[in-house]
Amino acid sequence: MIHPSMELQKRELSIHGAVIGNVFGPFDGHMKKIEKAFQCTVVNRGDIVVITGERASAARSVLAKLAEHARRGEEIQEQTVNYLIASVEDDTFGELDAVGSDQICTTVQGRAIRPKTLGQKRYADKIRKNTVVFGVGPAGTGKTYLAMACAITAFKNGEVSRIVLTRPALEAGEKLGFLPGDLQQKVDPYLRPLYDAMYEIMGSESYQKNLDKGSIEIAPLAYMRGRTLDNSFIVLDEAQNTTAEQMKMFLTRIGFGSKAVITGDITQTDLPDGKKSGLVEAVRILDGIDGIGVSLLTNKDVVRHPLVQKIIDAYDRHTPKPPKDAKFRGTGRPAGRGPNRAGNYSYRARRGHTETGER
Q: Does the residue 357 lie in any domain?
């Protein structure tokens, strides 16, 4: 409720009737969330939306941005509304224009792939600018998917002649035992997330054609030893499960004309007790070297179900925090065995820091 002693603002916004249902959300859920966040009332009068309240200008800005999303044909999710509101509160809303205008590529169905948050935008920019990029963040921040989109774009544009996708073949806290079949069938379960992203963006027919030609290669990390990968776009996924030795081996495979993106979530390592995570060590050692970029995505960049963001926040609140002068510290420990010492880094965005965890 608006306090009667507060100075009220009144703002108007034109939103076409064809998209206003998408903007307001199911049962006006998005609109009610905006009203609550900015202590205002929102009334729809035909194509004119009238906003009244002490922070009507801020509410109008959020509604205008949602209308932009709707006009591009995007289905507005609750997470998008939450992110825009949070961006107003931490004074980063003015930087969001660059996010919506950055189209990385389109899927085989014609859907545009764009960064959805400022953190994702900076991550994509670093991939374009640097030879090696580390994308570190919690589940659902689009680390792997955006890396795949950038890899496919570079391949289609002729910037590289091959895409190489790899990840450590390590079980997530379970012992699966013997897996039947040939090599491809044995490693398929570990590489399924990479397949899924490739199918969605390229289409199964194009993927299979390029796989048969050798233009796309998917293999476990152990098979990278002894190779030099020239003119390739290499994506190492689940890098938190690499050892320091494996990470060094992988990074020294990069040849001329190649680019590498290493992604991982340091709070979900499955390494044995006492084993250092190669991702943690690599970020600590290599950050600041020209040609190497580090993007630390946070809970604000989660683009899955809104509940995922709340789950990450809850775990962060119960995870010991690192010293202020440390980016990452500790050794990797298996998930589910007490606090993960490699995961002392909190994914919660703090004031004075950007969404990528950098000052």
A: no
CA 49 to chain centre: 33
Q: What is the pLDDT of residues 103-113, one digit of tens each?
A: 899 888 888 88
158-162, long-range: CB < 8 A, 24+ apart: 159/233, 160/231, 160/232, 160/233, 160/257, 160/258, 160/259, 161/215, 161/231, 161/232, 162/214, 162/215, 162/216, 162/217, 162/229, 162/231, 162/232, 162/233
Flag whether 99 is in a domain: no
Note the pLDDT tens digit of each residue in 264-323. 998 888 888 778 899 999 999 998 899 999 999 988 888 777 677 778 778 777 766 654
- Find all residues with CB under 8 Å of 131, minimum gap 6, and list them: 254, 258, 259, 260, 291, 292
Count of domains in the chain?
A: 2
Shared domain check, 117 and 81: no
Cα gap 218→262, rounded to integer Å: 15
Domain containing 32: what range?
Answer: 9-89
Tell me, yes or no, whether 152 and 294 share the same domain.
Answer: yes
Task: Output the domain CATH number for residue 35.
Answer: 3.30.1370.10
Say what the pLDDT of residue 359 is.
38
Question: Would 140 be classed as within a structural domain?
Answer: yes
Encode pLDDT of 162-173 as tens digits.
999 988 875 544
Q: What is the structure's pLDDT at 322?
A: 53
- Contacts made by residues 70-74, CB under 8 angstroms, sequence distance 24+: 70/19, 70/22, 70/23, 71/16, 71/19, 72/100, 72/112
Instruction: State the chain's mean pLDDT as an integer.
Output: 82
Question: What pLDDT is attached to residue 185?
Answer: 67
